[in-house]
Amino acid sequence: MKRIKIFAPATVANLSCGFDVLGCCLDTVGDEMIITLSSKPGVRITKIQGADLPLDAKKNVAGVAVEALLLKYNGTAGVDIEIYKKIKAGSGIGSSAASSAGAVWAVNHLLNNPFLPHELVAFAMQGEKLASGNAHADNVAPALLGGFTLVRSYDPLDIVKLHTPQDLVMTIIHPQIEVKTSDARSVIKQNVTLKQAIHQWGNVGGLISGLFTEDYELIGRSLEDVIIEPMRSILIPEFKNVKKVAIQQGALGCGISGSGPSIFALSKGIDTATKVAEAIRQVYAKTALDFDIHISKINNQGVKIIS
Length: 307
What we know:
10 helices; 11 strands
C-alpha cells in the first residue's frame, strides 16, 4: 500500500480538571487527509483545503510531526500529504492535533507500523510544539489511541488509555471567535495554592475512577476546574450561561474544551446531549456571534482509515 485516506478526529482536552493531562476523542468531527509514500525523499504538503495553512512542511504541524517520525525511522522514505481541514484553527477541539496525529498515524501504517501507537504520540507532539510553543499531548494522545487518555508523565512520556463508558456523549459549541492556545496560556497563573491543588487532584482521581466504574454521578461531580477555568472563561462569551443551561438540561458536567473558545458538555445518552445542544443553541442565538454545534459519541478507536 502506497496511499491512504484517513479520518483525523477532533478531541477535547483538559476535561475541566485535567489540564494538559486528560483528553478524549470525538467520533463525528474531524479532518480528512491523504498520505502517499513517494520515491522522492522528504516531506511535502501538496494540498490544503478548508484553511489557510502553510504548504512549507517545516512550518506545517503535519509536516513537522512526520519529519520527527522519519528522523527515527530506520530507512528512507518520501511522503506527500494532502490536508482537508474541517476543524477550524483555534477552535479548541484539537485542530493542530488532528493534523499532527493523523499524519504520523498514516505514515506509520504505510511503513508497516515500525512504531507502536504510544510511540507515535511523541512525534505528533512536535506538531503541537510548532502550533502553540508547548509540546503537550492531551489532544494528540486521544486522537492516536482513541477514547479517554491520561498523560501520567511527560518526562519520561507515559500515556495511559482509560476506560470509556459507552453511554457518554459530547455536546460541543464552537463560537466563531479565535482563542489562540498561546494567548489562553498567557492568562494562566504560574502558581496555585495547596488548597487548589488538593481540590484538583481529587477531581482528577474521581473522574478516572468514575470512567472505570461507569459511575456517571461521580464523573459529573469530578468535572470541576478550580484552577484554569476561572481565568480562561472570561475569554469566552456567554460561558457561564452555557454552563448553567447545560447542567439544567441534565449534562454531567460542562467546561472549556482545550484552550477554548469551544465549550463541551458531557452527558449520559444521546437524548440528554441533544437537549443540551438545543439549550446551548438558544443561549448563543441571542448573540451576534456565529457558532457551530456538534454532538458526538466518544471515538474509542482514534484515527480511522477511510480508503
